[in-house]
Amino acid sequence: MKKILITGAAGFLGSHLCDRFIKEGYQVFGMDNFITGDFKNISHLADNPNFEFIDHDVTEFIDFKGDLDYILHFASPASPIDYLKIPIQTLKVGSLGTHNLLGLAKAKGARILIASTSEIYGDPLVHPQTEDYYGNVNTIGPRGVYDEAKRFQESITMAYHTFHGVETRIVRIFNTYGPRMRLNDGRVIPAFMGQALRGEDLTVFGDGSQTRSFCYVDDQVEGIYRLLLSDYSHPVNIGNPHEISIRDFAEEIIKLTGTTQKVIYKDLPVNDPMQRQPDITLAKKILGWEPKVDRAEGMKITFDYFKSLTEEELYKSEHKDFTGFIKE
Ligand SMILES: NC(=O)c1ccc[n+]([C@@H]2O[C@H](COP(=O)([O-])OP(=O)(O)OC[C@H]3O[C@@H](n4cnc5c(N)ncnc54)[C@H](O)[C@@H]3O)[C@@H](O)[C@H]2O)c1
């Protein structure tokens, strides 16, 4: 039985990856410190003999007993509202955490895949973004802590590959959505759906002409799975190239949810990217991968998930409490 360590296991993507690798017959070790994650995302695995949970902060030394075949490093705050509140933890998990995990991969002879992001392209001057675009990032802007942590993460990963011969994979994830996203994490899909469910107006930042492209989680997981098992060690974009303006997307959500509320406009946050669209030519060529779930279908499944939350969860609008995690 192949053994895989998944960090960020109690988060949105990490928990779906745990499910997928268990389904594929792996022994899965999920690691998390719950800073932005929730045990609820993996509680269904608690009694599964092929799953073991390790409560650990990956920025601390990782003492893992036994063999490992693969590591997926997905631990990191991922939404702007999170990394603005915990900027130093965000920098540490991308740098120190990645260093620890690369060291573990080297010691165990394991292949490691790290979760990078479309954010490394910053506010892109090239559209759509191909993997050979170097990006346009403001190092000291509010998003710099996340973007630069991820850029460092890619660099140290390539250095371990070229210098130590560690088998590495780098996925550049574009906006992904689906069940288990946090309703109050500030990302546009949970934000709109939460507002619709609570009978509030939908908030659009700026004039709504900025575009985004959204990838359904099952498609993302399939891309990551194929990349891990491929022999390609350079970064690969995984995302859905179908682009939509935030204004049009708000209208789609109004139709889907049947809300009678309207769209209201607020000031655009600093360094909010105007356009994001992956060029997935490389993923198609080397992984034979492209997204299969269209937006209407994915949004319906996601909305059904948010509808299933309790009243308490729906109205818990205050942000996650990070007290207890802050020890810089
Ligand atoms: N969701 C997306 O659209 C998206 C896009 C680009 C990149 N990514 C990347 O994918 C990964 C997962 O994102 P997500 O959306 O699932 O976010 P998430 O916040 O739901 O999950 C991240 C998980 O990492 C854990 N974590 C954070 N710091 C940790 C630490 N020091 N030690 C142990 N665990 C820690 C959190 O508690 C959480 O469970 C991140 O690396 C993120 O940068 C996600």
Automatic annotation (TrEMBL):
| UniProt similarity note | Belongs to the NAD(P)-dependent epimerase/dehydratase family. UDP-glucuronic acid decarboxylase subfamily.
Q: How does it sit in the membrane?
A: Single-pass type II membrane protein
What Gene3D superfamilies does the record tag this protein with? Answer: NAD(P)-binding Rossmann-like Domain
State a single Gene Ontology molecular function. Answer: UDP-glucuronate decarboxylase activity
**Which EC class, in a word?**
lyase
The cross-references to InterPro entries, in alphabetical order and at most eight, read:
NAD(P)-bd_dom, NAD(P)-bd_dom_sf, UXS-like
Q: Which cofactor does it need?
A: NAD(+)
Q: Which GO terms describe its cellular component?
A: cytoplasm
GO BP annotations of the record are: D-xylose metabolic process
Q: What is its EC number?
A: 4.1.1.35
**Please, which domain of life does this record's source organism belong to?**
Bacteria
Q: Which Pfam families match?
A: GDP_Man_Dehyd
Question: Keyword set for this entry?
Answer: Decarboxylase, Glycoprotein, Golgi apparatus, Lyase, Membrane, NAD, Signal-anchor, Transmembrane, Transmembrane helix
Q: What is this protein called?
A: UDP-glucuronate decarboxylase
Task: State whether keyword NAD applies.
Answer: yes
Question: Which PANTHER family has this protein been placed in?
Answer: UDP-GLUCURONIC ACID DECARBOXYLASE 1 (PTHR43078:SF6), UDP-GLUCURONIC ACID DECARBOXYLASE-RELATED (PTHR43078)
Q: Where in the cell is it found?
A: Golgi apparatus, Golgi stack membrane
Name all NAD(P)-binding domain ranges: 5-300
Pathway assigned to this chain's UniProt record: Nucleotide-sugar biosynthesis; UDP-alpha-D-xylose biosynthesis; UDP-alpha-D-xylose from UDP-alpha-D-glucuronate: step 1/1
Q: What parts of the sequence cross the membrane?
A: none
